[in-house]
Amino acid sequence: MIDLLVAGAGPVGLVTAIHAAEAGLDVAVVEPRAGTIDKACGEGLMPKALDHLSRIGVNPSGVNFFGIRYLSGSTSVDARFTSTPGRGVRRTVLHDALKQRAHELNIKFIDGKVDEIVQNDSSITAAGIQSRYLVGADGLHSSVRFNLGLEMSAKQNRRPRYGIRQHFTIAPWSDLVEVYWLPHAEVYVTPVAENTVGLAILGYSGLNFDEVISQIPDLATRINPAPPASKLRGAGPLRQRTSHRVQGRALLVGDAAGYVDALTGEGLQVGFAEAQAAVNSILSGDITSYDSEWRKITRSYRLRSGGLLWASSKRGIRPAIVPAARTLPPVFRKIVRSLS
Fold first, then answer.
1. DSSP string of 160-192?
2. pLDDT digits over 104-134, tens only?
3. Which residue, 138, 90, 150, 158, is CA-closest to 255?
4. For residue 269, which of 188, 202, 340 has the smallest C-alpha distance?
5. Within 10 A of 156 (CB to CB), how many other CB atoms are there?
6. Which residues pair with 202 in a beta bridge?
7. Burial (CB count within 10 angstroms: exposed 0-12, middle 13-18, buried 19+), residue 63
8. How many other C-beta atoms are found inside a 10 Å radius of the C-beta of residue 315?
9. Distance, CA of 73 to CA of 235 (rounded, Å)
10. What are the distances in angstroms from CA 66 to CA 54, 189, 263, 300?
11. Nearest to residue 239, comparing CAs of 212, 270, 267, 275?
12. Would you call 223 helix, strand, or coil by DSSP?
């Protein structure tokens, strides 16, 4: 019997496994997808996320960015980090860097998927592996969350939101992550390599990449001549709710533990903190403490993302978001700098 089985080899799952292995636990990761794992996401690592990776011996290559720029029509406002920069990193590059560190720590990888979970007072069995504890880090549509009975349906009055993402071969033109606010979508432009930018679009169902980009003439002029550097990918619905994050000897981290929206770009930063807290609760022998710790870790993120999502869903408020940020730059900058 091993100490910990992690379901999911995405970034948060791998960070969980790395923290466990560094603490001396016998840990394995179960994942049905072979090779390098890609995902539709914004790919901007905030400064705190980079600092967390550095502390576990991971330093993925990419392009530094120094803050956030909001744009809406002819209105724009910048907020620069006051500490260290963030970094745009291709999800595939991040996955490979984390997996290399996991191999250095002799973490075992198992090809499989968690379809059934059986547990008692001293162990838990999933994917045919018996362990002392299980961490579900298997993403938005977590089978661990479902099998534990911790899944909650989204509120009926909230329209589901989705994300799509594609890369283009063009040199980054800004040292900031640019966020374009449109009537029904947001477009995130993140530099991820010296000759590559990633475009992520968040909005409601029926998103059409070309149609959305055509609504931003300056961006379309830059992107349209540039060759695609990746296939178009999608993800969603983004809103995921859980009743609890602990059940028996199992814990949930990352998107599997509940997700609001990608509006603030701090998902991995929060997920990495959850991973460390989950391992700490296992080491303490009291995993029930993780649920309250999860609430502390995610409180600011849930308030920021939830508040911004509520405002952006209101027709009378959404067009005022960028002008308000420009009128009250200290408030906007304070919010952005809280991420650094």
1. -EEEEEEEEES----SSEEEEE-SSEEEEEEEE
2. 999 999 999 998 999 999 999 999 999 999 9
3. 138
4. 340
5. 5
6. 163, 186
7. buried
8. 8
9. 27
10. 18, 13, 18, 21
11. 267
12. helix
